[in-house]
Amino acid sequence: MVVMAGHRKTPAGLDVIEFDGSESVAKYAAASRDHNRALSQEYEAAAEDLYGILKELGDGAWYKFGFDVKRRAGKVAARLERMSEMAGWVATESVLLNLEYRRQFSELISPEPDKPRIWDW
Prior knowledge:
The chain has 121 residues and is mostly helical. 64% of the residues lie in helices and 3% in strands. The protein has helices spanning 22-57, 67-104, 106-109; strands spanning 3-4, 7-8.
């Protein structure tokens, strides 16, 4: 995320979505879900790549046959794997945002029809 003086840049164009109705909440939730799903996949792939690179670059103790380097590389890659999981959780919460909005403000989405009069005095 790029932060400049007085300006905040958000990913996937989330800052340009104005909340002006039900469609905008759904659009915001979908954009957030897509962005976080892509982040999750990126972090997962980066974890695998970084583990492979660190395992090859590290110089471990000769008597440990490189197992110490693999363990340290695994600890670093585990952070990226956790980031991937968290981004997946945020993607799930983005979907739940729209569902919760529809549940809590259903009267704004589809107002109840006027009830017909049963009898006339």
